[in-house]
Write a structure and sequence with these properties.
The structure holds two protein chains of two kinds. Chain A has three helices and two strands; from the N terminus they run ααββα. By secondary structure, chain A is of the alpha+beta class. Chain A has a two-stranded antiparallel sheet. Chain A is rod-shaped and about 85 Å long. In chain B, strands 3-4-2-5-1-6-7-8 form an eight-stranded mixed sheet, sandwiched between helices. Chain B is globular and about 55 Å long. In chain B, α1 (16-29) packs across α13. By secondary structure, chain B is an alpha/beta fold. Classes of the chains: A alpha+beta, B alpha/beta. Chains A and B meet through α1 of A and α7 of B.
């Protein structure tokens, strides 16, 4: 082994701290968003939508689904209400 | 009237119990009357780290249930006359701890101590919530490592939402204590740096405890590191952090074990 090898620096370990930092920043931005949101917002929306629709159409409460999708730029609220067959036409065309 | 300080982290193994013992002892060394309470029911260890494991007769749950009076359960440290320990129960069901009971014990203690340190169990369950419930201040012990930082963030959210102070619309004063820090690895970019952790968590820094063999040596013999080897790097870091807690302004440094040139040349084995 050459004497110079003694003084040569060890092969540098990969610099991974910036990766850790970036991963944490992205993750925590997301998790804080979930935390700050009112925990029962979706439940509340679901109840109120169910109540509003139920005033006009008999509904199976289990067939009302409210879902929130969080995107980077926009978030969407998806409301899926399944109506029973054979309810009044006049309700269906009202807009 | 005591200040109630919770030492918490979310993640286990980051140094909550070590830090509670070291800061509790350092506060007592500064002339304050201090009680440290172990909230880790079933996995108590603060007694062991403080070298009081053979003197435990009654515990927190006994006091909560009225089986023992507070003065019967408090264990006075043999080295520091200002330091007292209220141990956790090792055998009882942890559901025996109630919010009302813990509140009663802490308010009884508030009149008799300057500081009450609550050593939180890991996790975010009942025990951790009870440990933080009545806190005025909080130390969040964080290692410069992704899972620890994430869990600290979660705990910070809980301190802002689930403490009695938060529910009164006030704020628990929060401090970050970075432990197991390795300056050389951070400088090489192998470990999150202090600035990284502080920027992510956005909480003021109380101190930086370097990774050190002295911490293990102190727990081996059941003595807080601030007492067992006061000149060591971690002990000086804890002493500085404690004085900051008491309101002093002390420049933030990472104490290091001064090594002679010969030691450095002899290489890492000497460390």
């Amino acid at each position: 082994m050459s004497i110079f090898r003694l003084f040569a620096s060890r092969p540098a370990a990969p610099v991974t701290a910036p990766i850790a930092r970036e991963r944490l920043q992205i993750l925590l931005a997301h998790e804080r968003g979930l935390r700050d949101e009112k925990p029962d917002l979706l439940m509340l929306l679901r109840e109120e939508i169910l109540a509003a629709v139920s005033r006009h159409v008999a509904l199976d409460p289990d067939k009302v689904i409210v879902r929130m999708e969080r995107g980077k730029h926009v978030s969407t609220l998806e409301v899926d209400v399944e109506l029973p067959n054979g309810f009044e036409r006049s309700v269906a065309v009202a807009s | 009237m005591a200040k109630v300080l919770v030492v918490t982290s979310g993640k286990g193994g980051v140094g909550k119990t070590t830090s509670t013992a070291a800061i509790g002892a350092a506060l007592a060394q500064n002339g304050r009357k201090v009680a440290v309470i172990d909230f880790d029911v079933g996995l108590r260890n603060l007694d062991l780290v403080l070298g009081a494991e053979r003197r435990v007769v009654f515990d927190l749950i006994n006091v909560v249930q009225g089986i023992a009076k507070l003065p019967q359960a408090l264990i006075r440290d043999k080295r520091l006359e200002n330091l007292w320990l209220l141990p956790a129960s090792q055998t009882r069901d942890k559901d025996a701890l109630t919010e009302e009971g813990v509140g009663r014990v802490i308010s009884e203690m508030r009149d008799n101590f300057d500081w009450i340190l609550c050593d939180s169990p890991a996790g975010i369950e009942r025990g951790a919530l009870l440990a933080m419930r009545f806190a005025d201040e909080a130390i969040i012990v964080t290692n410069p490592e992704v899972s620890s930082v994430r869990d600290s963030d979660r705990i910070i959210g809980m301190l802002d939402a689930k403490t009695a102070k938060a529910e009164r619309g006030e704020q628990v004063a929060k401090h970050i204590l970075i432990s197991r820090f390795d300056r050389a690895r951070a400088a090489r970019g192998e470990m999150l740096g202090i600035e990284d952790v502080l920027e992510i968590l956005a909480i003021p820094l109380l101190g930086i405890i370097p990774e050190s063999q002295d911490v293990l040596r102190a727990s081996n013999v059941g003595s807080p590191v601030t007492l067992n080897s006061p000149a060591s790097a971690p002990a000086r870091a804890y002493a500085d952090a404690t004085r900051r807690l008491l309101g002093e302004t002390i420049p933030m440094t990472v104490p290091s074990d001064r090594k002679g040139l010969m030691n450095l040349l002899r290489g890492r084995r000497a460390a």
